[in-house]
């Protein structure tokens, strides 16, 4: 039985006895799931003797680690600019997802890669915030008018902004999920509970951070780094149960229930514990109100999500992966908006994919 | 690792590997595992990689590459996908251009994945144990010049990446075929009619591309690092008069840093390595109008008779 990436993260000590042919299959999977740097930091914590891992393997793990270090420095630098930009409109920088983990040095941070910086802002300040960000060099660039309208009308974020000089990408959210989702997220409560990391920089409070991570992952349609996102959840849960004490899970449940996000939280707990043995007492949580889907639904979701969280590699690929990917893609759109909005959108997108020039010239 | 080379495989064995578990071969410190059903890839490899060492089949490969048709659409269009780690990060390509994409993809792997060395965008050639780094913008003629030098007894260390051991002036050999574009293909064929060229890929995003077998020196696949002594910025201009002139270190530093693949990623250690590297080099601009001129200028550089 070949070791899996999830096994390796859960028991990093097993890495020291892997053969070169094991690594031959694992390094591509680690690169694909963006977990090279994460494993590197777990191994460094296990042993200060990096010669225990073959040198030709270590250099790949180390490359992930170096990229992470570089991103950490760049994030600090970008943050200085963002703090001064948003200070002009009296708005703190509320970091979400990877940037929040790195900046707050939270459990998933070690070796983690980020592809952009996600922030939350107050919706009523958006026009002023976009103005000031633009004067600091962040712009959406050329964007198809249909896509722009779609973002503005239906999404929880504005089109991604790129920095003209530094090339960094900024995702500006005004809430956590598209407003068309059947959920009840009140951004003002997110702001009320947010915690300050340093002057002008905030992150969501622990329960909101876990709920956002879960909601984001289980509303997703693409799972290229799904395993990494599940690892984030495992790390956050293990971390917060220590720092927040016994009240953490009851609070988490209450908050998820208020936001109508109990279902994604259930999936987060179920799959984090099945892939990473996260210490969660699901039975106890069920007695506190965490409802389990019907057994038929669980069977279906297990089929889909086990495939989504398995790296896309011949060494571990399960039969039915293509079907699962396609189903999850459709599911993500279905969760995002009602069918009367979704169908015209998907038809329009398919048309734009087939005839890119014609589609944009008509706008 | 075995000491067998790719030349020890006959055509049947080569296709068995390429269409089966993968052909594993070494380029400098790295191992590639390649799968491909395409005859043009097999032909190109047999011609250009004959002297590359094979790697163990049950070992570790740094890069896993494959050509694969993804479904009916690729099949109908005569297209194929180039995959890295079983993922398809690039759009489908016409099968006839597959060889150029293989070489380009092999470069891409080194450019983006590993950071143990400071990597400059430059060709590296050596003679008498002294390495000369040839950075250059596309079109400056670094590949044409290094191809010509390889055909005149110089050792080619790399066509694309000067890989510097951090904190030293030592370069890691990464010998690969030299990529020639458009007019350079005929120019090199005329310069050395016995030159071994791979398949020509027409109409790529860079025009026509062909590769030259450049591991002609007896020590081409030696892994030992070589000290660099010169940094020469070639610039080809048809009919230009030969000029080899010293170049300022600061300017050379800026250019090399700007055209590095991972200078900024390495942060402070990248800056220190680059400073120490440039401090120990003599830097020159080389303007030339013919490769014979450039060849003799490079010879004179080695013998300390430059700038005259």
From TrEMBL, chain A:
Query: Which molecular-function annotation in GO is an example for this chain?
Result: transferase activity
Keywords carried by this UniProt record: Transferase
State the InterPro entries in the record: NTP_transf_5
Q: Which domain of life is it from?
A: Bacteria
Pfam families for the chain: NTP_transf_5 (PF14907)
Q: What is this protein called?
A: Nucleotidyltransferase family protein
Q: Give the species.
A: Sediminihaliea albiluteola
TrEMBL record, chain B:
Q: Does the keyword Transferase apply?
A: yes
Q: Which domain of life is it from?
A: Bacteria
The keyword Protease belongs to this UniProt entry's keyword annotation: no
Q: Which GO terms describe its molecular function?
A: kinase activity
Q: Which UniProt keywords apply?
A: Kinase, Transferase
* UniProt cross-references to NCBIfam families, sorted A to Z: HprK_rel_A
Name listed for the protein in its UniProt record: HprK-related kinase A
């Amino acid at each position: 039985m070949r070791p899996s990436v999830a096994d390796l993260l859960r028991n990093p000590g097993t890495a020291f006895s892997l053969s070169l042919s094991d690594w031959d299959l694992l390094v591509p999977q680690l690169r694909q799931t963006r977990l090279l740097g994460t494993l590197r930091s777990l191994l460094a914590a296990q042993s200060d003797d990096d010669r225990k891992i073959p040198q030709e393997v270590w250099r790949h793990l180390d490359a992930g680690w170096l990229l992470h270090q570089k991103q950490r420095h760049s994030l600090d630098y970008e943050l200085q600019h963002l703090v001064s930009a948003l200070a002009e409109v009296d708005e703190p920088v509320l970091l979400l997802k990877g940037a929040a983990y790195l900046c707050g040095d939270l459990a998933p941070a070690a070796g983690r890669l980020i592809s952009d910086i996600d922030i939350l802002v107050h919706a009523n300040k958006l026009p002023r915030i976009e103005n000031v960000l633009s004067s600091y060099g962040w712009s959406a660039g050329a964007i198809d008018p249909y896509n722009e309208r779609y973002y503005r009308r239906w999404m929880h974020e504005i089109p991604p902004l790129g920095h003209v000089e530094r090339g960094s990408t900024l995702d500006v959210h005004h809430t956590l999920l598209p407003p068309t989702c059947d959920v009840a997220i009140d951004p003002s409560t997110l702001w009320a509970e947010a915690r300050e990391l340093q002057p002008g920089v905030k992150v969501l409070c622990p329960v909101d951070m876990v709920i956002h991570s879960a909601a984001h992952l289980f509303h997703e349609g693409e799972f290229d780094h799904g395993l990494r996102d599940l690892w984030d959840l495992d790390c956050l849960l293990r971390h917060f149960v220590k720092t927040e004490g016994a009240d953490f899970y009851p609070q988490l449940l209450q908050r998820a229930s208020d936001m109508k996000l109990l279902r994604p939280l259930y999936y987060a707990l179920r799959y984090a514990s099945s892939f990473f043995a996260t210490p969660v007492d699901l039975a106890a949580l069920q007695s506190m109100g965490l409802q389990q889907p019907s057994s038929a639904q669980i069977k279906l979701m297990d089929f889909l999500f086990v495939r989504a969280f398995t790296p896309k590699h011949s060494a571990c690929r399960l039969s039915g992966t293509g079907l699962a990917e396609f189903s999850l893609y459709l599911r993500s759109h279905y969760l995002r908006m009602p069918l009367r909005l979704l169908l015209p959108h998907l038809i329009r997108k398919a048309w734009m994919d087939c005839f890119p020039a014609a589609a944009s010239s008509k706008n | 690792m075995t000491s067998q080379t790719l030349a020890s495989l006959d055509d049947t064995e080569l296709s068995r590997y390429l269409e089966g578990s993968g052909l594993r071969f070494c380029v400098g410190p790295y191992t590639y595992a390649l799968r491909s059903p395409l005859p043009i890839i097999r032909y190109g490899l047999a011609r250009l990689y004959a002297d590359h060492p094979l790697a163990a089949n049950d070992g570790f490969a740094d890069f896993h590459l494959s050509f694969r048709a993804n479904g009916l659409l690729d099949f109908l269009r005569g297209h194929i996908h180039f995959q890295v780690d079983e993922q398809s990060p690039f759009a489908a390509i016409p099968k006839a251009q597959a060889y150029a994409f293989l070489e380009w993809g092999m470069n891409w792997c080194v450019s983006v994945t590993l950071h143990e060395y400071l990597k400059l965008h430059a060709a590296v050639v050596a003679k008498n144990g002294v390495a000369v780094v040839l950075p250059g913008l596309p079109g400056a003629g670094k590949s044409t010049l290094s191809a010509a030098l390889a055909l005149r007894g110089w050792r080619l260390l790399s066509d694309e990446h000067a890989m510097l051991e951090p904190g030293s002036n030592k370069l890691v050999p990464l010998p690969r075929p030299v990529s020639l574009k458009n007019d350079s293909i005929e120019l090199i064929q005329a310069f050395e009619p016995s030159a071994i060229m791979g398949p020509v890929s027409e109409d790529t995003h860079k025009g026509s591309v062909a590769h030259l077998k450049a591991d002609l020196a007896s020590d081409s696949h030696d892994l030992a690092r070589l000290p660099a002594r010169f940094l020469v910025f070639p610039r080809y201009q048809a009919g230009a008069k030969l000029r080899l002139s010293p170049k300022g270190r600061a300017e050379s530093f800026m250019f090399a840093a700007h055209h590095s693949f991972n200078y900024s990623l390495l942060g402070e250690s990248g800056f220190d390595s680059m400073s120490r590297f440039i401090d120990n080099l003599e830097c020159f601009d080389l303007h030339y109008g013919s490769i014979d001129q450039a060849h003799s200028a490079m010879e004179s550089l080695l013998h300390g008779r430059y700038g005259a």
